Amino acid sequence: MNIGKRLALLVIGLVVTVSAHAFDPFVVKDIRVEGIQRIEAGTVFSYLSVKVGDTMTDEKASQAIRALFATGFFKDVTIETDNGVLIITIQERPSIAQIDIIGAKEFKKEDLIKGLRSLGLAEGRIFDRGLLDKAEQELKRQYISRGKYSATMTTTATPLERNRVAVRFDIVEGDVAKIRQISIIGNKVFTEAELLKQIKLRTPGIMTWYTKDDQYSKQKLSGDIESIKSYYLDRGYLEFNVDTTQVSITPDKKDVYISIGVTEGPQFTVSNVGVAGETLISRDEALGLVKLKSGDVFSRAKLNESTKAIGDRLGNDGYAFANVNAVPEIDRAKRTVAFTLFIDPGRRVYVHRINVTGNTRTRDEVVRREMRQLEGGWYSADKITKSKQRIDRLGYFNEVTVETPSVPGTTDQVDVNLNVVEKPTGNITLGAGYGSSEGIILSGGISQNNVFGTGNFLGVQVNTSKVNTVYSLSFTQPYWTVDGVSRGFDLYKRNTDPQAIGAGYYRTQSYGATGRIGIPFTEIDNITVGLGYDDTNLTTYPGLSPVRIQTYVDTFGAANSTILGSVGWVRDTRDSAIYPTKGGTQRASVETGLPGGTLRYYKAGYQNQRYFPLNNTFTLYLNGDIGYGAGLDGRPLPFFRNYYLGGVTSLRGFYTSTIGPKYEDGTPVGGSKKILGNAEILMPVPGMANEKSVRLSAFFDTGTVGESYSFSDFRAAAGVGILWVSPFGPLKLSVAQPFRVQVGDTRQRIQFTFGQQF
Q1: Residues 694-716 pLDDT 10s
Q2: What is the pLDDT of residue 150?
Q3: pLDDT in tens, 449-480
Q4: Is the CB of residue 342 less than 8 Å from the CB of residue 276?
Q5: Please, are residues 680 and 719 in contact by the beta-carbon 8 Å criterion?
Q6: Residue 50: inside a domain, yes or no?
Q7: Element (H, E) at 131
Q8: What is the mean pLDDT of the segment spanning 308-315?
Q9: In this structure, what CATH number is given to the domain that contains residue 381?
Q10: Within this chain, do residues 36 and 157 fall inside the same structural domain, yes or no?
């Protein structure tokens, strides 16, 4: 073999061509790598199948070249020999030194860089023109998904020293294409305007700048087509069909036109509904769960409700995987349809484990003690639903979800996976102010509904000014016993000195304590019994003290003690404490001054709050609240035990606690009798239907307070409001217009409350 004999191998794609200078096999004395810049020689050696001392052949040379090309690190590989020395000459692919994205506003640059990395395009990686083209196309698709069809981009790869490149994306986003027209063709029963109300996509309007519903999306259009289909199927049009959907965009890529072609077909009525299969429950009970009856206009929604109701009923007996199929028999001549509900209960299953996740602060036991479904017990859909509702009503979580997957390898076991999303359950208020008359005013309060994750409530309140000084402490343990018996107490001290600002020459000093025990006697009913003590002392100045204060002292004396007894009943059937849409709460209570104290009186009240779902969007909320109080032993009800109305939490549009009679100095008297009514339409904020922390309302409030329930004394107001459980705390805002007003009433059209959560 002559010195200098060479082997040149040129590779294009996956095809390897060996140099025409073939050689006889020889023993490799040494291996030398030339042309490397960034890559270590050891990396090259690690991919070679030939070592020093091996016999080199044409086949091994080809294998070596293929292996090196397969790494993707090299643009070219050449193998030469020189007196038994194997010389490998390589040309490295450049690496990416930096990636710049210019002109991107629709997406965050960090998100785009992350997306490019997932495609294999990142700083430090080998540059590949094919990957760069792929990344460019992917970015264009992302802009199209945002409605920016005119977006353009230019990619450049600038060579740098040491075999590196700088990649740059220059993006011109352009304007968002808007839907200018949505046409529905073929409809006769329902007008186009009526059908367009059923879909989310729409032409530009007042709120579309926020909702983005005027921007075309294939996913949104698919959902809208299903909404139109459901609208027809729920009204008897069993053979309704969407024939065509056409989406066109103008040449300037700014306007989108959508056309939907439909065939309505005839309206069908239900001729008969029957059940078959292994029902496990009586036929009459199964048919009683069916929402569709003979003679009704067909409704797919009611049919689905019927199959779900039967499935849930079987689920209560442990048949978690019960299957109910509705098989139709269509009579097109008579335009009727009959259904047979075939029931397959499947195997009865029991719960293997209950897994709780998402509770980083709340202890497991706080969640588990609300569970009505137990481990090892037969599966019960009703118990799982009740468990979810009880956990939701705790108020500790923004979201509660339940899944019941089967246990792998079994046919009769399921796990209950309960996932919660915690929310702030504490409330802290801090305030400071200065008044020319009261001087420095400091106030503060802290409360925690789930202190240390135990489910216990703890609240502390401090308020100091020249006039009022209040200290209070409240504690509640909802599970004193494992059966859910609760206990709690309240302590307070209150001093009032209006003469410090010349508002009234008198002083009061009060302190007291109350203990409470709550006893649940059903899943939704709870009775609370309380016993407390209050000691109040008044200091008056003859001829200077207000008449109402002097009258009180003349009637009850300057020093009074009260032994307070109370009993209350609460029924809670709400589906959620955060975002209720159905159910409600009822409260009844009696409070009285017991024998042994100097103040004898009683107060009784009843409140009923109800939620009625009008549809998937709107909820009707009704509230009625009535109170009645009177004195005992021939004495009146003490004035500081009176009821008061007015404010954002009772009768909106009127200043807090100012409705009703007034003293000679204009101070509200309140009254021994109260009645309040509220009616509200609750709805999500447009474009935020899935956001459970904010809600809009249109309301009507009416009520009165005084010594009678006279209709002539009723006030009324109407308006709009918003409730937002914000990251900074709960905010309640109302704008009301009072339209039934009495002389002396103080109006306040805009009202709000705000608290800081932690």
Answers
A1: 889 999 999 999 888 888 889 99
A2: 86
A3: 888 889 999 988 887 766 678 899 999 999 99
A4: yes
A5: no
A6: yes
A7: helix 129-145
A8: 92
A9: 3.10.20.310
A10: no
User: What is the rounded distance in angstroms from the CA atom of residue 332 to the CA atom of residue 355?
Assistant: 51
Domain that holds residue 406: 350-422
Max Cα–Cα distance, the chain, nearest Å: 134
Q: Tell me if 732 sits within 8 A of 721, measured CB to CB.
A: yes
| Beta strands per DSSP E along 286-395 | 323-331, 336-344, 350-357
Mean pLDDT check: name the lowest of 49-63, 158-172, 507-521, 552-566: 49-63
CB 698 within 8 A of CB 723: no
How far from 378 is each of 143, 373, 381, CA to CA, in Å?
A: 51, 8, 10
d(CA 704, CA 651) in angstroms, rounded, equals 9
Domain count for the chain, please give it: 6
CATH code where residue 542 lies = 2.40.160.50
Rounded Cα–Cα distance for residues 303 and 522 (Å): 33
What are the pLDDT digits (tens) for 336-362?
Answer: 999 999 999 999 999 999 999 999 899
Structure tokens given for 227: 């909404």
Find the DSSP H helices in 515-665.
Answer: 547-556
Does residue 445 surpass a pLDDT of 80?
no
Residue appearing with tokens 């975002």: 579
pLDDT, one tens digit per residue, over 636-672 is: 888 888 898 988 888 999 987 888 888 776 778 888 9
Q: What is the pLDDT of residue 208?
A: 80
Residues 36 and 58 in one domain: yes
Q: Which positions ≥6 away from 436 have C-beta within 8 Å?
A: none
354 in the same domain as 402: yes
Distance separating alpha carbons of residues 282 and 511, to the nearest angstrom: 63
The helix/strand/coil state of 121 is coil
* Residue at 601 is within a domain: no
Domain final residue, candidates 61, 92, 123: 92
| Residue where a domain stops, chosen among 563, 585, 607 | 585
Residue 287 shares a structural domain with residue 241:
no
**626 within a domain of the structure (yes/no):** no
Report CA Rg, the chain: 39
Q: Are 19 and 64 contained in the same domain?
A: yes
Give the pLDDT mean for 565-586.
90
Pair 316, 381 in one domain: no
Question: Where do we find the tokens 């990416």?
Answer: 96
pTM of the model: 0.64
Query: What does the buried/exposed string (b/e) look like for 489-522 if buried means 16 or more CB atoms within 10 Å of the residue's CB?
Result: ebebebebbbbeeebbbbbbbbebebebebeeee
In terms of domains, do 200 and 255 share one?
A: yes
Alpha-carbon span 739 to 716, nearest angstrom: 6
Tokens of 74: 């090299």
Place of tokens 């069993």: 238
Cα(178)–Cα(253) distance, rounded to whole angstroms?
9
Q: Are residues 337 and 355 in the same domain?
A: no
Tokens of 18: 């060996």
Question: DSSP letters along 368-422, please?
Answer: HTT--S-TTSBP-HHHHHHHHHHHHHTS-EEEEEEE-PBPTT-SSEEEEEEEEEE
Residue 256 CA to residue 224 CA, distance in Å, equals 16
Given a cut of 60, whether residue 120 has pLDDT beyond it is: yes
Q: Mark residue 111 as left, alpha or beta (left: phi above 0; alpha: psi -120 to 50; beta: remaining).
A: alpha
Closest C-alpha to 616, from 680, 679, 683: 683
Element (H, E) at 277: strand 269-277
105: which residues sit within 8 A by CB, 6+ positions away?
Answer: 173
Render pLDDT for 94-106 as a digit per residue (tens, 0 to 9). 888 889 999 888 8
CA distances from 108 to 112, 157, 420, 427 (A): 6, 22, 30, 34
Asked whether residue 704 is domain-assigned, the answer is no
Q: Which of 499-508, 545-554, 588-597, 723-732 has the highest mean pLDDT?
A: 588-597
